Prior knowledge:
Elements: H1 14-29, E1 40-45, H2 51-62, E2 66-70, H3 84-92, E3 97-102, H4 107-113, E4 119-124, H5 130-144, E5 151-155, H6 162-170, E6 177-181, H7 190-198, E7 202-206, H8 211-214, E8 219-222, H9 233-239, E9 258-260, H10 281-299, H11 304-311
Parallel strand pairs: 1-2, 1-3, 3-4, 5-6, 5-8, 6-7, 8-9
This protein binds phosphoric acid mono(formamide)ester.
Phosphoric acid mono(formamide)ester binds next to helix 2.
Amino acid sequence: MENRSLVTIADHSKEKILYLLEMAKQFELNPNRKLLDGRIVATLFFEPSTRTRLSFETAANRLGARVIGFADPKATSSSKGETLKDTIKMVSNYADIIVMRHYLEGAARWASEVTDTPIVNAGDGANQHPSQTMLDLYSIYKTQGTLENLNICLVGDLKYGRTVHSLLMAMRHFNPTFFFIAPDELKMPEEYKIYCKKHGIKYFESSDFSEELINKTDILYMTRVQRERFTDLMEYERVKNVYILRAKMLENTKPNLRILHPLPRVNEIAYDVDDTPQAYYFQQAKNGLFAREAILCDVLGITLEDIIEDNER
Length: 313
Ligand code: CP
């Protein structure tokens, strides 16, 4: 049987991404559909989450599925030493989809290789966060009217931030120009710069977060410095407040500039930005529901045609 897991966004073609965005649009028009009636969705979160877990669970509920799972692995047999492989094989006996967040890079890939039950990667260490990327793309498309030819500025923790790694891979189809803004300690890893070169993605790197840069940007993608990934907390203390976006830095932006952030934020976006027309991060999180409804349907083989047919009922 074809395994329809979503492990990395790099597996998706341009056509597939646009198809999923069209599905998300349908779900925004009507999120409540019983397309997953009788299905069980398992959400296994080995790392903390607010948005990803709750929006996947909301998506499953709005689609008529039921949800099992855990948000705290300490309350499961993994705390007794059960391996990830055994946990996945067990949960596969109970659920039709497994949505999994794990602290180890490659954990979702590994899980997808030990079961035929579709795995949805809800974040694996500093590696990938493909469902976040689908909602980011949906947010970019909604605010810019296109995904093509955009100036995208990624700011903050580009070393450990899995959302920026996934986003740049997905954007390879859309001729972006990236600006990687990070301190030396948190620069975009070499493997992603090699990926950019291989796929003809233009990028510029700097540690200088200037208004001049903001003013030529279409999407300003802020990120949190990922405290949980540092082995040296003194280093975290040195870089944690390296960039703080404030409303006064937004006075001369392009009219279409929108600020995205996967959230949670810590200090990197001042609260006065929330009231500016450029702030879009809360709507972005809301878009997660529609994008994740699309993903849950897609991994179970439910098509855009099925959704459109559902509109006509
Ligand atoms: N954006 C994101 O992954 O948020 P959570 O960690 O709250 O799920």
